[in-house]
Amino acid sequence: xxxxxxxxxxxxxxxxxxxxxxxxxxxxxxxxxxxxxxxxxxxxxxxxxxxxxxxxxxxxxxxxxxxxxxxxxxxxxxxxxxxxxxxxxxxxxxxxxxxxxxxxxxxxxxxxxxxxxxxxxxxxxxxxxxxxxxxxxxxxxxxxxxxxxxxxxxxxxxxxxxxxxxxxxxxxxxxxxxxxxxxxxxxxxxxxxxxxxxxxxxxxxxxxxxxxxxxxxxxxxxxxxxxxxxxxxxxxxxxxxxxxxxxxxxxxxxxxxxxxxxxxxxxxxxxxxxxxxxxxxxxxxxxxxxxxxxxxxxxxxxxxxxxxxxxxxxxxxxxxxxxxxxxxxxxxxxxxxxxxxxxxxxxxxxxxxxxxxxxxxxxxxxxxxxxxxxxxxxxxxxxxxxxxxxxxxxxxxxxxxxxxxxxxxxxxxxxxxxxxxxxxxxxxxxxxxxxxxxxxxxxxxxxxxxxxxxxxxxxxxxxxxxxxxxxxxxxxxxxxxxxxxxxxxxxxxxxxxxxxxxxxxxxxxxxxxxxxxxxxxxxxxxxxxxxxxxxxxxxxxxxxxxxxxxxxxxxxxxxxxxxxxxxxxxxxxxxxxxxxxxxxxxxxxxxxxxxxxxxxxxxxxxxxxxxxxxxxxxxxxxxxxxxxxxxxxxxxxxxxxxxxxxxxxxxxxxxxxxxxxxxxxxxxxxxxxxxxxxxxxxxxxxxxxxxxxxxxxxxxxxxxxxxxxxxxxxxxxxxxxxxxxxxxxxxxxxxxxxxxxxxxxxxxxxxxxxxxxxxxxxxxxxxxxxxxxxxxxx
Length: 778
Fold this sequence. Notes:
Elements: H1 2-33, H2 48-51, H3 55-61, E1 70-72, E2 85-89, E3 92-99, E4 102-108, E5 114-119, E6 121-123, E7 128-135, E8 148-151, E9 154-157, E10 162-165, H4 190-193, E11 206-207, E12 212-213, H5 224-228, H6 232-239, H7 262-268, E13 275-277, E14 292-294, H8 315-318, H9 322-325, H10 347-350, H11 363-366, H12 377-381, E15 384-387, E16 391-394, H13 403-409, H14 414-419, H15 429-432, H16 438-446, H17 450-471, H18 481-489, H19 494-503, H20 512-524, H21 528-539, H22 546-555, H23 561-568, H24 577-589, H25 598-615, H26 622-634, H27 638-651, H28 658-672, H29 677-687, H30 693-721, H31 726-739, H32 742-755, H33 760-776
Antiparallel strand pairs: 1-6, 2-3, 3-4, 4-5, 6-7, 7-8, 7-9, 9-10, 11-12, 13-14, 15-16
Keywords: Signal, TPR repeat
TPR repeats: 622-655, 726-759
């Protein structure tokens, strides 16, 4: 009886418990599935929305280089001395002073007249601070919009607490106001050179018609959402009552952690790399190659072995390193919010390289006195190069010093960077003051100073002998891609077979960026057939890195039209925008586009429209309009080409190039008009339907001649400024020839041939010109 009663009581309790479990499970399931719509798009909310939950990170961020990347000029943000200071450079008496709350400078303006300008913004904090002036502000601009900003070359050295003039590299003379390198020129324009990496969610908003800017940003500095992505969804979820983050959107931020390092590295790379922009709508978490085109290891920006030469901003170096291929990421060494190193001195390295005692951080390894400069890991494995006169930056390719490569192919090495100073007394006294940094020695040698080149060579050999003595048979000097690149660039035929093998090596053996550069150099060195063959091999593997596949697609631009159509047409639908972009341009330049019809032509046209969108990201640069004009010309859209050439001239009237290319297009149309109906139609379309074809052709020729006359003084200016550049001298020589000034043309072509005696086209042009002069009696 009692047992039956107990059983009757248990049933309701069991039912209640089961019901509760069902209800709770259902509620939890409903909570999980009742998330944000899959289509929800995050927006920028600003760092104030982050601080309440992330106070530790916020405190670390305050005062960091990201926090101080840019600001309004105020008493709190301006470091430089504006207490009525006179600063002189190039014969100009510049004055830095205050006008009430405003910071002012009296300096040379765009018209060459000394005048007063207000400093509106400060840029950076250490080791230098720069200052910016606003021009051409549209009267209808909103308070949150910025007009054209120009960055003054007069800058504040925050270490030495003094003003200095930031000269462009290799330009010792005074910059004239019409020079693009003048502080009022395009090379010193905030929007074109700096803005997107110093502010968050920047939109340039350049108007091609009015040539004005309406630039905006969500935050003036590099704030939380620059790295973590727009945070509105994250904030909404964090403030909600759900037990879960969202099943569609996760945390609502960029995925910067996890075993795969790609997310974090590609969040840093957009600003810490030398790249061009294909899509300005990037946000953290997006694939790098869908928005940016990373520059290859070109000879003017990297040394042959991939060491840094010009400003390349870390990422292109780091992806060459063993650290990258072993899964090391930025935050293993750097605090992501303060940006400081996580450990002092050599501990930055030994915190990971904890090998047996006595292996690395001891004299038996580095062969220098403990505590000396030579005993610091970074000085041997991450040597620095100084930019902007006061800003030393370390090479993040993290390599073993290779004086043996210095001896064989002339690349720098960390050992010589210190020990070359031992040769200073052997250098002529009048040169010594100019040899402050290792890069000063390298530059002088590259410009033909045999005395300094000999001193470097002696140092390299001495360092090589020291390494042989120290490490003996245990020393490792494996083959290096620098040897291949140096060989291709100097015409060594034995390098071709090595290059072909190297391009197809796996990434853990051969860095992708080095392989892509090797493939590109094969083509540039005149080995088109071999390069095309290698490109076809690369493109057979859809899993190859987009940078390598994009380079292979670009190489296919040198192939036959039929080959280009066969190989490149499928790539117009590639997942990577970078690959699609290069494939599209190569399809047009190869002539393959012109053979398409029907569905394939429509597909190609859509891809070409995307190229215009990509190029117009830089609509404030003439180069973007020139590139689109050239593409339009190649596909036979001459009206579009003319408009784009004219836009290029309007956007940068001081730039050489657009008028010459425009004139050449008109000349080609006139020359073809006798036999080509397409050329005849183009001339009629461009110069009006009235009048005879001969009259319209005459108008086209007159237009071309006027364009060349307008371009001539600009080419002359370039030839004067780049007196040691053979290509620039050659272009000026051709322009003089076309203008009818044959003696002046001969002088310029002779200069080009002397500067580059191995370039056959220069010597051939000079020979033909002299034959013409002799034949005409001049």
